[in-house]
Known about the structure:
Layout: H1 3-17, H2 26-48, E1 58-60, E2 74-76, H3 79-102, H4 121-137, H5 141-157, H6 164-195, E3 205-206, H7 210-227, H8 235-242, H9 245-271, E4 272-273, H10 276-298, H11 303-324, H12 327-358, H13 374-387, H14 394-409, H15 415-418, H16 420-445, H17 462-480, H18 482-490, H19 493-496, H20 508-529, E5 540-541, E6 544-545, H21 555-559, H22 565-575, H23 581-599, H24 604-623
Parallel strand pairs: 3-4
Antiparallel strand pairs: 1-2, 5-6
Helix pairs in contact: 1-2, 1-4, 2-3, 2-4, 3-4, 3-9, 3-12, 3-17, 4-5, 4-9, 5-6, 6-7, 6-8, 7-9, 8-11, 9-11, 9-12, 10-11, 10-16, 11-12, 11-14, 11-16, 12-13, 12-14, 12-17, 13-16, 13-17, 14-16, 14-17
Amino acid sequence: MTDFQLLIMMPMLVGVVIFVIPDSMKIIKGLIALIVTAVTLYLSIIVFRLPSGAEAGLYSLQSIFLPVIDKFMMLKVDGLSRLIVLFIGLFGFLYAIYSISYLDRSQTSKGSVKAKIPPYYYSYYLITLGASFGVALADNLLLFVALWGLLGLTLYKLIKGHDDESSATGKKTLILIGASDSILIMGIGLIYISARTFNMSEISLFTNTKIANIAFLSLLIASFTKAGAFPFHTWIPDYAKDAPASTSAFLPASLDKLLGIYFLARICTGLFHLTQWATLLLLIIGSVTIIAAVMMALIQHNYKKLLGYHSISQVGYMITGLALGTPLGIAAGLFHLVNNAIYKGGLFLTSGSVEKRTGKEELGELGGLSKFMPLTFIAALVFALSISGIPPFNGFYSKWMIYTGIIQFGTGTGIANKLWMVWLTLALIGSALTLASFVKLISGIYLGRRNEQLGEVKEVSFLMWFPQSVLAVLCVLFGIFAYNWVIPGLIGFTHVGNANTFPGLWPAQAVSILILVSIIVGFIIYWVGTLKTRRVSDSFIGGEKLQEELSYSSLEFYKTIGTFKLFGFFYEKAKRKWFDIYHLGKEFVLGLNSMLSWCHTGILSTYLMWMILGIAAMLVILIV
């Protein structure tokens, strides 16, 4: 087998084989999955180092398939697919390490994790991994859509089953993803009508005809649903809340984002040439996604659901970067895609560590864990600063590139270009609100007083803190060394050109040194101040001693956000699911069903009347 065949087929075949191993031998299945993911990580590095030129970029899986379908098995390796494959391999390996301990029933606290372990977890995990590699490498749209659809099924199976709420979430996810896949198939059919080929490398359509526009919108819907962009995002917060943390990190936070935005990049930089209206549409969706999701995150008290909304908000930045259509914008969108997968996956891992040790998911039930889980706290703090766009971490660098790309985009003459200040302002507001919500998360879980009801809490095992520590280190390295090493080495030149030629890039290394020096000086000043002998007394207010039990939760401040009249209006509508496309669709179907039930009375004369009216309507249509 070639490296490509092993990369795609090996994890899928092993995943199928270990179905026969009972779930009671979960450790053995976990070790098998760990070995397979280690091999796929090695193979993904090999694929990443392959040449990506037009002559060397096409490969085939033909040696293991029937000759009649060889033409549908074409793969293409370019800068974009190499980037996605590398990080699929990395995340697959790290999350497999984490899962071994996270899913270990003997270490489960309060029974919360035990209850959420889906059956045949590792089988579906490996099938998902292999299919994801195939999606990233497929050049033929039929192969692409087959593997893309398989990922919708495994997404459902990796949450289904532990209670009624998770089953409902799984059904919601399956219906939304399945519906978008159906629309994707329609779009692919329209592309074939226009281009007479299924190979993405041979397709280049202009969005100036009715068929091309419908095909473009069909593919956008599939991409947005997978990545979680507004208004097709509503499955992600529920999935993040009800799924195991390892599953949330693996799929909605990492692989679904990588593949959804990867497909969007294919749509915007290869399959279609965007017109002004298409660019404007993408920028509007990107900006609305940023603001709507971060506003919902502010009022969440379940920390996993909060992370789910932020997973959506960050997609808006990626869409904005790609929509700009400039080399800097595309590079910024792809770099933010990678950065988001790193820190968002890490945030879900740290949330799983907290859930593992405490059995709690509500911020109001936690607090003061930094002393008892220091490694998890440090990693979570790094991830929170990264996603909030604080220098010198990677999230700041990619957001800075997006801001710079928007300003550069504003020099154009189109209507979307003239509104550059709107896109920039909304992106900046989104970053500020992200920081505010993560102050809430960090203070609610790790700072303040420890909830005495938690009992004994200790740091998680090596297998759980090691993956999140690796991701935290990457957040630092990808921020400090972005300019000289990371962007030139990772972001494929095929699509974005030489990254070092972009204007306005942030000198991360010099500023990082200054930040480090200021931190060291601050610690020195603090240490010198503690050398003095001082008297310690009880706190008091108004001449009375402050009771130790009294404390003020930072969560109280965020409760006031919903009391603002404008915000309260939208929050109330969101609570009633006005913006949930799944709920609206369900209500429509149920209403239609009620109407049909009303029509079917069981009375023969009524049926005869409907038949006559139907025939009359057909005659009118034929005559007209």
